Amino acid sequence: MITKCLFPAAGYGTRFLPATKAMPKEMLPILTKPLIQYGVEEAMDAGCNVMAIITGRGKRSITDHFDISYELEHQIKDTSKDKMLDGIREIIQKCTFTYTRQNEMKGLGDAIYKGNVLVGFSNPFAVVLADDLCVNPEGDGVLKQMVNLYNKYKCCIVAIMEVPHEDVYKYGVIEGSEIEDGVFMVSNMVEKPDIDKAPSNLAVIGRYILTPDIFDVIKNTKPGKNGELQITDALCEHAKKGMVIAYKFKGKRFDCGSVEGFVEATNYFYNLEQAKN
User: Fold this and answer.
1) Distances from the Cα of 168 to the Cαs of 108, 185, 223, in angstroms?
2) What is d(CA 68, CA 77) in angstroms, rounded to the nearest whole number?
3) How far is CA 4 from the centre of its chain?
């Protein structure tokens, strides 16, 4: 069973400056919840109860968010606002949170490798990038879909989506053969390829299921694009030795690492709330 989910959350969020000068991008709110809480709720829905978070300098508010605030609880006790904390209280009660720091920004692969002390070397684990906000109002969440697929294939899995060909340079891109509807056996992966060299328009987004042997692969992977240790490169090497699956998930993804995607997500969730009322 996959019970641990890793959240790389050490980045600077420079596209949201000056807002992220003192506030982690993972704490930017979509309506009344920060991005990372949406990710934690998705992980819980997929069966995870241990949330392992890779933080950095200036990220203390993430730790504080997933903890009891006695002063605030006292101030709003027996008021109409008390129930507004029900959701985060449930998360705190049901989950264990562990933390370590990525002292230098050396890429997503390095951040995931730092997480080995939190998730261990014995079991598969999930990875969620909180600024990729995913929803599937008509069925299982994206991570739950991937966990179900893992139970069938027992290998590393990456979530993918089709993107306009002119946008492939923004993503890790896969090459592979479709083995069932929406499921691809990966033969190659390229991080942020030039448009004319991209093997496809199937782009990796911030959801992964990784097996523990990935840590040895990352350890032996050389820095790639921008001099950083890319998880895309490590998974490409892993695909040559074992099996890596790419899954075209059901649902919608918002790139909340960009202002445009953040506004789109805010409007989407606001309209959902309005429809409920």
Assistant:
1) 18, 19, 20
2) 13
3) 13
Q: How far apart are CA 274 and CA 277, in angstroms?
A: 5
CB 147 within 8 A of CB 26: no
Beta bridge partners of 128: 207
**Among the residues of 158-248, which ranges form H helices?**
214-219, 231-241
C-alpha 147/C-alpha 126 separation (Å) is 8
Which domains are seen in the chain, by residue range?
A: 4-276 (3.90.550.10)
- pLDDT tens, residue by residue, 115-151: 999 999 999 999 999 999 999 988 999 999 999 999 9
* CA nearest neighbour of 181 among 144, 151, 145: 145
Choose among 111, 154, 120: nearest CA to 4.
120
- Locate tokens 């807002």: which residue? 19
pLDDT tens, residue by residue, 61-76 = 999 999 988 888 888 8
